[in-house]
Amino acid sequence: MKVPNYKFEGDSDALFQEVFEKYTNHLNPGLAKLMGFAGFGVEMYAEGCYIFDHESRAFLDCLGGYGTFSLGHRHPKVVGAIQDQLGKMALSGKAFFSKPAADLAEKLASVAPEGLQFSFFCNSGAEAVEAALKMAKGYTKRTKIVSTIGGYHGKTLGALATTGREKYRKPFEPLMPGVVFTTYGDTEELVAAIDADTACVILEPIQGEGGIIVPPAGYLAAARKRCDEVGALLIFDEVQTGLGRTGYLFASEHDHVSPDLMTLAKAVGGGIMPLGVCMGTEAIWQGVFGTNPLAHTSTFGGNPLACTAGLVALQVIEEEGLVSRSKAMGDRMLDAFKQIGRRHPDMVADVRGRALMIGVEFTEDEVGELVVAQLMKRGVCVAYALNNPRVLRFEPPLIISEEEVDSAATALEESLAETEELLASLV
Ligand SMILES: *Cc1c(COP(=O)(O)O)cnc(C)c1O
Fold first, then answer.
1. Which of 46, 98, 255, 275 has the most CB atoms at less than 10 Å from its CB?
2. If you count DSSP H runs as helices and E runs as strands, how many of each does the chain have, helices first?
3. For the chain, how big is the Rg over CA atoms in Å?
């Protein structure tokens, strides 16, 4: 794939200053400072695997919007379908049936893990998690929720209560009560925490923000078994892992475990529309919506634009074979990164992941930040994990080419070498 053409014709310094000041005065002064300090530019244009900034510099997008841009930026098929839909109806009138919502729900049921027949549509990952937790509480009439340390489920009050990092939770307590945290990947601890009071267990099949943590074999299956024993529901939060990212359409397929509830967002809107989904079984939908069909609703949820994007995104994933492509490109990237890691054992503690969900763990937090800056300098966009700043995550579009994987590897190697020199010159 070749790098697209983009040139910003205006005064780039003036543009940066203007945007920076507006962030400082009207959005988030602290964030403006942090981003300005790190040297981030203004995003101007995106196409395929690339983002351009105000200085018309191209960045290979290895962050991929935390997994949002699985189809790349502005996939032409999704753009075309949305433009068509925009000519007919954008948001739902709410008093009518909507065909795009019906079509997407049917399509999702046909590809989702066994038993997940129903969908609730919303607009983000946190909202999808809110819906799943509410469904679980409503259906089981229980209140205890088991989550994991390092788990990331969003920052709204309910989802935040299950997010496994004190730094984000503490200042906003009391949050939704009843949540207990267990060590991610510790089967014994998890099983022991699930009891007859447990409404649900919420797990990412691979922890994303926790630092790309792949659980040991049998962990998800043990959760499934214990939930069945005590009548608790199993929620898989596939907001980041879903839609081919891990070499399977859904990451739980690797372990052959089906949840009772599953959340999707990020990639599900085709990288163009905000879309969140909470999927669940017929029994749960009967239990919650049977007595009150309006028990959970969202004004924008299920709107024709988002659902059209979702439907075409799934078609593109199938037509372009993006699930197997994710596996092939991910194996290539993981191999290359592992070799690079071995050449820099003082800085790189571990390289891990599955398909195009890859984490590079450094021996120190500060090294991670320096390497991010070096990679950005070389035109590769990355970031560290929110709940684990020591880990750089690579989640490029699944349409990435071999050449681009190789150029990301070269950039990583050079970035590590220069960081090493920099650190050596400091002592
Ligand atoms: C990003 C993420 C969320 C939250 O999604 P938002 O759209 O940012 O609210 C929830 N769960 C997981 C696993 C995520 O990666």
1. 275
2. 15, 15
3. 22
Out of 250, 266, 278, 300, mutate this one to test ligand 1's pocket (max ligand atoms within 8 Å of CB): namely 266
Digit-by-digit pLDDT tens for the chain (427 residues) are 689 999 999 999 999 999 999 999 999 999 999 998 888 999 999 999 999 999 999 999 999 999 999 999 999 999 999 999 999 999 999 999 999 999 999 999 999 999 999 999 999 999 999 999 999 999 999 999 999 999 999 999 999 999 999 999 999 999 999 999 999 999 999 999 999 999 999 999 999 999 999 999 999 999 999 999 999 999 999 999 999 999 999 999 999 999 999 999 999 999 999 999 999 999 999 999 999 999 999 999 999 999 999 999 999 999 999 999 999 999 999 999 999 999 999 999 999 999 999 999 999 988 998 999 999 999 999 998 988 989 999 999 999 999 999 999 999 999 999 999 999 998 7
- Output b/e per residue, 166-195; b: 16+ Cβ within 10 A: eebbeeeeebbebbebbebbbbeebbebbe
Selecting among 53, 61, 237, 260, the annotated active-site residue is 237
Question: What are the structural domains, with CATH classification, of the chain?
Answer: 12-74+321-426 (3.90.1150.10), 76-319 (3.40.640.10)
Ligand 1 center from residue 221 Cα (angstroms) = 23
